[in-house]
Design a protein that fits this description.
There is one protein chain. This protein is of the alpha/beta class. It has 3 domains: 30 residues; 386 residues, Glycosidases (TIM Barrel); 80 residues, Golgi alpha-mannosidase II (Immunoglobulin-like, Sandwich). 28% of the residues lie in helices and 14% in strands. The protein is built from 17 helices and 20 strands. An 8-stranded parallel barrel has the order 1-2-3-7-10-11-12-13. The protein has a 5-stranded antiparallel β-sheet with strand order 14-15-16-20-18. A 3-stranded antiparallel β-sheet has the order 4-6-5, with no helix packed on it. Helix 7 packs parallel to helix 8 and helix 13 runs parallel beside helix 16. The longest helix has 19 residues. Bound molecules: 1-deoxynojirimycin and calcium ion (CA).
């Protein structure tokens, strides 16, 4: 086909049909662009299904419980939900031990429930992302049952098996090396039947798959295709940096403390973690998976299928590699956990990480995140016990007012607090049992979503017994009360998300840090061509602060307040933007500036 000729035919047809057609064509192409780019400024919401909504009152959240709350998510402004694993699982690691990647755990519901959730989400323009756990399966997965059945079974090399050291006919000897499980103890488990050790980076019930085996790769391509055909909008790849291990099985080095002694955590030496994490083989795997995924697009669920990575990495340069290259793309959105790992209210450290994301990731889109089902919630990591809600306003401002996509965890928007179990016998997360009381596990950030002030917080019927107790603070921290209060944290999240979506500077503007030497206040500008810039100032301290924007090169002039902490003031001059303790001010200049 001749290009000029075909363009001429399209143009002629449009002229004959009149301006209606031209408008329709323009709309179509802008909607095609938005389908392609939907993820770039998107708001992602992490759902921990076990704790979101329990429709059948067995104390465990389920898919119908999620469907029942889709209107809430729509109203909040969420573009996409990521569901932590809902596949059949013995639930040792609450779903991260998967026994069948192409089905639904009966505790969560049925495939029909999933299809209904998809259809209802689609009606509300909410996309659904699945968790993809490729590093390991459950030890009850049929692949592993086969693998452990004999050394000659065709599935033997789907997992990582090795002889021990000094093994005899009667003695299992020692594990092949000193590698440790993330959840404590040796990462090697002896298997008596075939007299070898298998490797597990996580629980013993989560044997690592062997990613050097092409059959494993093909199996996951098929799994990815299965869910894409069901219309999912992408995946969050679990523990993705741990796919490969050093083939020489070299011991890990031991991290030393400042006195040169082994650094200890929970009674075990801390290892360097370079022989089993972030090995380069992961890049080829992800590029292959991405190429597979990019082939899929249906009329029913159009748009880019997005890859999010669970990417805890040592620095921004390593994060950059996870995006791949334009020719061989990997993740759309590997999580930028650099900011999450700051773990304290430190304006200087935040500024440095945000500047890194702005300058070191090229044209790639950052994905910021502060919270999830594995880390104590925001209150426990940033709060001071006095100003927690204001601190949560500061953190969420950084999340939604920075360039890129944003991911947050259910309950952040109402300020749910970390509530670890009070007694060892109440602990559900096995790692909490193992290390009690030094580390109480992850139950504290997994308590049921607090919908109402009533019994069981509306997560469950008042008479059910939720799998984890509802913290008593749901009398004030709950969706129902906070939605009705314009000064609540919920309302703050709602307003920020609205700005992210509807204000052009917010939606597309580049980030430029202002007042870069200020240790107390983080100030930045979002500037997008053709619209006046937005200025954001966030006080990281419990003391009142004032920022002089004029000294930062912003000409004196009018500013319109877009959002401010309750009780905060509108500046009468750009020389004094006054902020209360952990106060936030967001305003839009009423004039254009050139830089
Ligand atoms: C990360 C998940 O978020 C966590 O919950 C899980 O225990 C590990 N990966 C192992 O799958
Ligand atoms: Ca249930």
């Amino acid at each position: 086909m001749h290009w000029t000729g075909s363009l001429a035919i399209i143009a002629a047809a449009a002229i004959t049909l009149g301006t209606g057609t031209l408008k329709a064509a323009a709309q179509e192409s802008s909607s095609a662009a938005s389908e392609k780019n939907w993820w770039r400024n998107a708001v992602f919401y992490e759902i921990y299904p076990r704790s979101f909504g329990d429709a059948n009152n067995d104390g465990i959240g389920d898919l119908k419980g999620i469907t029942a709350h889709l209107d809430y998510l729509k109203d909040l402004g969420v573009d996409a939900i990521w569901l932590t694993p809902i596949y059949p699982s013995p639930q040792v690691d609450f779903g991260y031990d998967i026994a069948d990647y192409m089905a639904i755990d009966p505790q969560c519901g049925t495939m029909a429930d999933f299809d209904r959730l998809m259809a209802e989400a689609n009606k509300r323009h909410i996309r659904v992302l699945m968790d993809m756990v490729m590093n390991h399966s459950s030890d009850k997965h049929k692949w592993f049952l086969q693998s452990r059945s004999s050394k000659t079974n065709p599935y033997r090399d789907w997992y990582v098996w090795h002889d021990g050291k000094g093994e005899t006919a009667t003695d299992k000897g020692q594990p092949p090396n000193n590698w440790q499980s993330v959840f404590g103890g040796s990462a090697w488990e002896w298997d008596d039947k075939t007299r070898q050790y298998y490797y597990h980076k996580f629980y013993t019930q989560q044997p690592d798959l062997n990613w050097n085996n092409p059959k494993v790769r093909q199996a996951f391509k098929d799994i990815i295709a299965f869910w894409l055909k069901k219309g999912v909008a992408g995946f969050r790849f679990d523990a993705i940096t741990t796919l490969f291990e050093d083939p020489n099985l070299a011991d890990e080095g031991v991290v030393k403390d400042k006195n040169g002694n082994p650094e200890m955590r929970n009674g075990e030496p801390v290892l360097e973690n370079v022989k089993t994490d972030n090995l380069p083989g992961v890049h080829d795997v992800m590029a292959e998976m991405r190429a597979e995924s990019d082939k899929f697009s249906t009329d029913k669920y159009p748009g880019t299928r997005v890859f999010i990575g669970e990417t805890y990495l040592p620095n921004i340069a390593e994060l950059l590699k996870q995006y791949g290259t334009p020719e061989k793309p990997e993740f759309h959105l590997p999580m930028d956990t650099q900011l999450l790992l700051v773990n304290k209210m430190d304006a200087t450290a935040f500024r440095a990480k945000l500047e890194d994301a702005e300058s070191e990731l090229g044209s790639n889109v950052p994905l910021f995140v502060f919270d999830n089902h594995d880390n104590p919630r925001i209150d426990a990591r940033y709060g001071d016990g006095v100003h927690d809600t204001d601190i949560q306003r500061v953190i969420s401002t950084v999340l939604f007012a920075s360039k890129g996509a944003a991911l947050f965890y259910q309950g952040d928007e109402i300020g749910m607090k970390t509530t670890p179990p009070a007694h060892k016998e109440d602990v559900k997360d096995p790692v909490g049992l193992r290390f009690w009381p030094e580390y109480k596990g992850r139950d504290g950030e997994r308590t049921p979503m607090q919908w109402t002030p009533g019994p069981n917080a509306g997560f469950d019927s008042p008479t059910a017994k939720p799998w984890l107790p509802v913290p008593g603070n749901n009398s004030t921290i709950n969706v129902q009360s906070e939605k009705a209060d314009p000064k609540s944290l919920y309302s703050w999240y709602h307003s920020l998300i609205e700005l992210k979506k509807n204000n052009a500077a917010f939606a597309q503007g580049a980030d430029t840090m202002l007042d870069r030497n200020n240790k107390n206040v983080l100030s930045w500008k979002r500037q997008s061509p053709g619209v006046p810039p937005v200025i954001i100032c966030a006080n990281f301290t419990a003391e009142p602060q004032s920022v002089d924007l004029v000294s930062q090169g912003i000409p004196e002039g009018a500013i319109t307040t877009l959002l401010k902490t309750p009780g905060g003031s509108d500046p009468s001059t750009l020389k004094h933007v006054n902020l209360g303790p952990f106060g936030v001010y967001i305003g839009q200049l009423q004039f254009m500036i050139s830089h």
